[in-house]
Specification:
Blueprint lengths: L9 E3 L2 E3 L5 H31 L8 E5 L6 H7 L13 H8 L5 E9 L3 E8 L2 E6 L3 E5 L4 E4 L10 E3 L15 H15 L10 E4 L5 E4 L6 E4 L4 H15 L6 E5 L7 E4 L8
Parallel strand pairs: 3-5, 6-9, 9-10, 12-13
Antiparallel strand pairs: 1-2, 4-5, 6-7, 7-8, 10-11, 11-12, 13-14
């Protein structure tokens, strides 16, 4: 008997077609083709964007600085580190602001872009609040940042805050502690108080027991006190001086740390006590 063998055929919609030999490979080739087209388009767009960035029209040609008093504008501009042909469209504004903040005198900084060719740097500066004595003398800001080292011949008209023990610090370091915060607060309140005949604090030293010693300068006593209830302590001092009819310069030191009394130690040439 003779049999007729035929290749299998599939009837679809009334028509007959052969099975594809490599269906997965065909789909993969199609997908790769689409991806190549999309990739080529993306590369073309990216290169076009890069070409626009490199146009001389968008090069930064003007930088303005606002809000600076202590730091020169050119010093702030130099801290940006911008190349001469930098495009204003390429700069990272937040990164530029961080570079400006590396200067310890700068407390806050922001950089704005003004198309087509200008940048504006807005800064808020720190102010020197005191002279801090550690291993050397430094300018200290109100928020506890070391602003600069002072030379031996530099005598700024600022109060002096002396550390309890000598220590090494660096410019730009934040050294704020609770004792230093209270020390600066003591100085501010002391300047506002009227209980000691208008004398102004010259130096405030942090003592080991948490108290503070206020030095009023030559021929004036040192005053030891606590940061808490400073107004009450100075009020007691004023009342004690008024009751004794004595001047403050008659004493070597005064201790205000007690609630019920003021302790005076006479100067060397003084024999009496109030």
């Amino acid at each position: 008997m003779i049999r007729d063998y035929h290749t299998p055929r599939w009837r679809v919609g009334g028509s007959v077609r052969r099975r594809e030999r490599f269906p997965r490979l065909t789909r993969l080739v199609k997908v790769l083709g689409v991806l190549l087209v999309l990739g080529g388009t993306g590369v073309g767009l990216w290169e076009g964007y890069r070409a626009v960035l490199r146009l001389s029209y968008f090069r930064v040609v003007e930088i303005q600085v606002e809000g600076n008093l202590q730091v020169a504008a050119q010093e702030i501009i130099n801290s940006l580190g911008l190349a001469p042909e930098t495009s204003i469209l390429e700069v990272d504004l937040k990164a530029l602001a961080r570079r400006v903040l590396e200067n310890p005198w700068i407390k806050e900084a922001s950089v704005r872009r003004w198309l087509p060719l200008s940048l504006t740097i807005q800064v808020v500066e720190r102010m020197a609040e005191a002279v801090f004595i550690a291993d050397r003398r430094y300018l200290l800001s109100a928020d506890g940042v070391i602003l600069a080292e002072l030379g031996e011949d530099e005598l700024p008209t600022l109060p002096t805050l002396r550390a309890a023990t000598p220590r090494h610090v660096a410019v730009g370091e934040r050294i704020l502690t609770s004792e230093m915060v209270q020390g600066l607060a003591v100085w501010r309140q002391f300047q506002l108080a009227n209980a000691i005949q208008g004398e102004r604090a010259h130096e405030i030293a942090i003592a080991g027991d948490g108290s503070y010693v206020v030095n009023l300068g030559q021929q004036m006593p040192a005053i030891r006190l606590h940061a808490q209830d400073l107004e009450g302590q100075l009020r007691r001092l004023g009342a004690a001086l008024a009751a004794s009819h004595q001047r403050l310069d008659r004493f070597a030191d005064v201790d205000l740390r007690f609630r019920d009394r003021v302790v005076f130690r006479p100067a060397a040439a003084t024999t009496g006590r109030p």
